[in-house]
Amino acid sequence: MGKRYIAGGGKFMKKAVVLFSSGLDSTTVLYYALSKGYDCHCLIFDYGQRHNKEVNNAVNFAKNLKLNYHVIKISLGWDKSSLVDKSQKIPEHKTIKKGFVPSTYVPGRNTIFLSYAVSYAETIKAEKIFLGINAVDFSSYPDCTPKYLKAMRQVMKALGNGIEIEAPIEKFSKGEIIKLGMKLKVPYERTWSCYNGKDKPCGKCDSCKLRAKGFKEAGINDPAINV
């Protein structure tokens, strides 16, 4: 458990749960939530990814910011996604087509994550759950769409717990996300987006390509490339 992050020595009045992976999107959302004065409590998920770089990176981020965090270990023994099944190769699509769901999709992942977030948020009496879902530049995962978010918000209303799901970059392009992050002083050189867990980003997987597209649109060199 990390220590609380106190901005300017003051006390937070609002609590929020942030689904955090240390990727470009979730890190931007974390910094956005902090900029709005939320006492952010991070949930970091270890769901059997083919590498532990993402989880370790997220933990280091939370520690450096002195945020409360939990690492949730989940076993999805039935899943055949190429993100968890090392017998499969991570796809390297030349183009990322809208509507085509790649093998990197983990069935039900965001629903599972949100279920944990709801339980945690109710327990600590958080006002909001922040997540980095983006429905513009993404890999057509069915749990990253406006339709999905609308349905999950209806679930929250049915629960009657008063907790809101906030997805501030839902309708942003990757370039717009990066421009927002630069204003928030997000240290993108420390974020990790690559589906492979090597020393450097592969530059070939869908996540790397979407990230590169975003930095090109923003007119900024990706600081993580030369770290």
Separate helix tally: 6
Radius of gyration, in Å, reads 17 Å
Shape: globular
Unreliable segments of 5+ consecutive residues: 1-10
The helix/strand class is: alpha/beta
Q: What is the beta-strand fraction?
A: 5-15%
The biggest beta sheet reads:
5 strands, parallel
Strand adjacency order, main sheet? 3-2-1-4-5
Name the average pLDDT.
Answer: 88
In N-to-C order, the SSE pattern is: EHEHEHEHEHH
Helix content: 25-40%
Cα-to-Cα separation, first versus last residue: 28 Å
Q: How many beta-strand runs?
A: 5
List the helices and strands and how they pair.
Blueprint: E1 14-19, H1 24-35, E2 38-46, H2 53-64, E3 68-73, H3 109-124, E4 128-130, H4 146-159, E5 164-166, H5 174-183, H6 206-218
Parallel strand pairs: 1-2, 1-4, 2-3, 4-5
Helix pairs in contact: 1-5, 5-6
Keywords summarizing the entry:
alpha/beta, 227 residues, globular, 5-stranded parallel beta sheet
Any overview of this molecule?
- It is a single chain.
- The protein has 227 residues and is α/β, with parallel strands linked by helices.
- It contains six helices and five strands.
- A five-stranded parallel beta sheet has the order 3-2-1-4-5, with helices on both faces.
- Strand 4 (128-130), helix 4 and strand 5 form a beta-alpha-beta unit.
